[in-house]
């Protein structure tokens, strides 16, 4: 088990800057996810931690030891890739090979193979050839082989991406269980927000080589520091609408949507005349009955453009004078006949669920008492 410190790391490939001054600290025994879209630099960062790439600038520390110039083969890490690389032999032999290379006796190897196989849940297929097992089991074998090395650090690069949806759900739960039993540090790279939110103790959200935010799953979901983080997390992502700040009201396209004097005084005292308001689709209540303003709530009047059934919920697309946003509705409180495309609706949002963002730099504006 080891802590990891990434200190001001940058990486360029020719004229392309893949990482820009990245700094992170991962604690001993932490399950830490690096989340972001394809091409954001997350795999490059993982390869630098592993020693497979050298940073252009910056340093990497394991505990207090600078390992920036330490070769990959002696960093004592195990890496599991998106595309498993298994030896063309039995499951047993794939797990046993790293143990044999450490000089364990045959009896010790056998005992350890069975122990690891049981931990990962593949004890019933040890004698099977890897060509004859499922894709999910192959990824489990790759993980078992990584565990057999007994490293101080596990690096997992999109290990569930190639699995089918059902296997992915099962493996997520298995990974969480295995990490709790191993009590080892895991750095997990993924583009899948569900994986990051369900597995990680903390998440670093990356975009274009920059870390946009680091926090617990609840922190990055409920209080995104940037517009990108809010948009990237959530199904659907956070809504953002441009609004004008007037002395005692907030207006969208000239229509009052919120009356909350303390909030607007705070915004105007910071020099804001225009802001982006951000809110989650699941926090909006939609009605065909006109809603009036009340303490602690905002109301947006709009027209339904699209109603989508997503299986476990509905998503309603609403337009309000050119501004578009989404509302997420539990099917138990909604039927496709209750709200139809083209109808006028009133959408109510609790003030404590509204966040304010600077439209110039897309960063969250902290407002006393309402913005976390």
Automatic annotation (TrEMBL):
PROSITE patterns, sorted: ABC_TRANSPORTER_2
Keyword set, alphabetical order: ATP-binding, Cell membrane, Membrane, Nucleotide-binding, Translocase, Transport
UniProt xrefs under Gene3D superfamilies: 2.40.50.100, Nucleic acid-binding proteins, P-loop containing nucleotide triphosphate hydrolases
One annotated GO molecular function: ATP binding
GO cellular component, one term: ATP-binding cassette (ABC) transporter complex, substrate-binding subunit-containing
Domain ABC transporter: 4-233
Domain of life: Archaea
Protein name: ABC transporter related protein
Organism, scientific name: Thermosphaera aggregans (strain DSM 11486 / M11TL)
